[in-house]
Each structure stands twice: as C-alpha cells, then as structure tokens.
Amino acid sequence: MPYDSAIGMYQGIHGKWSWAVIPDGTMDWPSQVVKHHLSHRLCIRTFDSGPFTPSANEFDRFGWSMIGDIFVTSPLETQDKIPRAGYDEWYLFEALPASIDIPGRYVNWIGFHLEEPHVLATEPDPGSNQMDFDWLTPIQTLFWSDMDRINPTTYIGNGSSFVVVSQNSAFIAAFSSLVYNES
C-alpha cells in the first residue's frame, strides 16, 4: 500500500529497508522506539534542526557520550526517556560502529520524502500542491547511499514530515499501527 489518503501515510520498501512517511509526528513514538530497540544505541544527529548538547549532569547521570557532533546514548532500556524537540534526526544501531560519519541533516530539507518524486507530483495530496519534486531525487539518492554505508537498524526523521526507515519490519508495523490508532 503506497499511499493511504485517510491518514496521509506513504509506505514502501527500498532494498532491505522498510519505510513509512506521514505528514505529522505528534504521537508518542519515542516509547515505540525504545520498545523495539532495547539495547540499541541511539545516535541523535539532529535536535531542533542542529546538534544536541546535553548538560554535564545528563552525561554523568545517563552515561551518554558524543562522537563528533553526534550524541550517543548508552544501550536503551525500557525506562529510558529520550529527549526530543521537533526537527530531530535519530539513527539506531544494534552495535555502535567504530566511527559515525553522517554528512547530511535530511530532516532539515523541507519536504524531504521517500516516495518517488513522480508519484508525489501526481498524488491528490493537498499538502503537495502538485509541485515539482525533481529536487528530491538527488537527496533521496544520497540518503539511501548513506543508509547503506552506515547501516543503522533504524532511521527516524521528525521534520516537515515524519520519516521512519528500518530493517526491523516489526517496528515499521508497530509504527504504522500507532499512526492508524491516532487517526
């Protein structure tokens, strides 16, 4: 099901990745992230459009760290409360890679989406205004290249759209179910 007009959700598959995009990410998604990614390391690439810098107290209290300008949690546990602000970008790893090089902040591209641009241009989505989406093709190519290179279990971008990509199909199903329950 590529597009569900009742809730404005697009879904698809790209190689080993399942993905979903919705226009708004206001539901309680952090709890689903923790539930489906226990013991994973969360890397916050973007927080409120820029880097996240926790206080010294937060670093000490939770055992968090920084790799470059990427904030890294200790392995996620059930009770963890993850900070979020909007225009956040998260990468979750089962095992933290030796280095994390994520050049882009995809969440800051207004209109970033994973559906094929020619499909977006023809969908009867009032938010798209049948605009030209050709600018999106090179951004999507770079995004999928980065995903294959850094190989996270899951990517989440909560910007002008809510973008979820995962190798964990159970998480995508839970996310989709959460979206349907909110609508």
Give the rounded overall mean pLDDT.
Answer: 82
Total strand count, please?
9
Percent helix: 25-40%
Strand order of the largest sheet: 1-2-3-9-8-7-4-6-5
Radius of gyration: 16 Å
Topology overview:
Blueprint: E1 3-4, E2 9-14, E3 17-22, H1 29-36, E4 41-46, H2 56-62, E5 65-67, E6 70-72, E7 88-93, H3 117-122, H4 136-150, E8 154-158, E9 162-166, H5 169-182
Antiparallel strand pairs: 1-2, 2-3, 3-9, 4-6, 4-7, 5-6, 7-8, 8-9
Helix pairs in contact: 1-5
Sum this structure up briefly.
Helices cover 27% and strands 23% of the residues. It has helices spanning 29-36, 56-62, 117-122, 136-150, 169-182; strands spanning 3-4, 9-14, 17-22, 41-46, 65-67, 70-72, 88-93, 154-158, 162-166. It has a 9-stranded antiparallel sheet with strand order 1-2-3-9-8-7-4-6-5, covered by helices on one side.
Description:
With 183 residues, this protein is of the alpha+beta class. It has one domain (3-182). It has five helices and nine strands. It has helices spanning 29-36, 56-62, 117-122, 136-150, 169-182; strands at 3-4, 9-14, 17-22, 41-46, 65-67, 70-72, 88-93, 154-158, 162-166. It has a nine-stranded antiparallel beta sheet, with helices on one face. β5 (65-67) and β6 form a beta hairpin. α1 (29-36) packs antiparallel against α5. The longest helix is centred in the C-terminal third of the chain and has 15 residues, at 136-150.
